[in-house]
Design goal:
257 residues, elongated, alpha/beta
Length: 257
């Protein structure tokens, strides 16, 4: 039993805490960790000068870095570059119908944990929230960053500015596959249909309706624009659940689980 505990502790120590910084950097640079990251280093992780972390810049470059702490100022000296294996998984963008209340906080956090490449707040016919403030967008971006660090991701999903359903339709051409879960879609199990739909797809877009779902008009417009209407089964899922289900299934089919 002691041997097992030692092995677990060894594996834990070998995993470096990850921090994201703005800009493109190279070995030898010294970067500053912002307020929340500095607080985490000093007060949550109880790290000190000379301790090692992993720093990821805006170009998704990874560095092994040594901490330099002076009072409340926390810096990291980038010592060596860490080579990463290129991912073969599809990049999945979730266009999420904006739900009311604080539900979008949960959605952003969990989509980040499940590997979404980007999250687009979507305004559609039945969206109750008619206006998304810049403060909310910034809050969601902070949540995405925090969730990415917590789950050990090597990147932060982009949280885009809100788009209307009509503007989203115009972007379908930028994706290899567009999926629209709809409660009235033909009920074919995803295990039978999805593998063929996403085969060889590099960029996948998934549109999730708001609390009231997509209207018939929107579903037809999406289909005419090239989207695949899919069924998520016999139960109607909440808007904050549907995107997580689709993303988890795509991850499973693609070999990310």
């Amino acid at each position: 039993m002691k041997k097992n505990r030692s092995s677990i502790k060894s594996r834990t120590r070998s995993s470096l805490n990850k921090f994201f910084v703005e800009g493109r950097h190279e070995t030898g640079d010294v970067v500053t960790l912002d307020g929340s990251d500095a607080h985490k280093v000093v007060n949550v992780l109880r790290m000190g000068g000379g301790d090692t972390i992993e720093v990821i810049d805006s170009a998704a470059q990874h560095f092994k870095a040594s901490l330099r702490i002076d009072g409340r100022s926390v810096h990291a000296a980038l010592e060596t570059s860490i080579e990463r294996t290129a991912s073969t998984l599809p990049r999945v963008t979730i266009a999420q119908g904006v739900p009311k209340g604080q539900k979008m906080d949960f959605v952003v956090e969990k989509l980040t944990e499940l590997g979404a490449a980007a999250i687009v707040p979507l305004q559609s016919e039945r969206t109750i929230v008619s206006d998304v403030s810049p403060n909310k967008i910034e809050r969601w971006r902070r949540l995405a960053k925090s969730a990415a660090q917590q789950c050990g991701r090597s990147d932060i999903p982009e949280v885009a500015d809100p788009l209307t359903f009509e503007k989203m339709l115009a972007l379908f051409k930028d994706y290899d596959c567009v999926l629209v879960p709809w409660e009235l879609a033909e009920r074919v199990p995803l295990r039978e249909r999805l593998p063929d739909l996403i085969a060889n797809a590099h960029d996948v877009l998934v549109l999730i309706g708001p609390e009231g779902g997509f209207s018939h008009k929107e579903a037809e417009a999406a289909k005419e624009a090239g989207a695949q209407l899919i069924s998520l089964g016999s139960r109607i899922l909440r808007t904050e659940t549907a995107g997580l289900v689709v993303l988890a299934i795509i991850g499973y089919i693609s070999g990310d689980a």
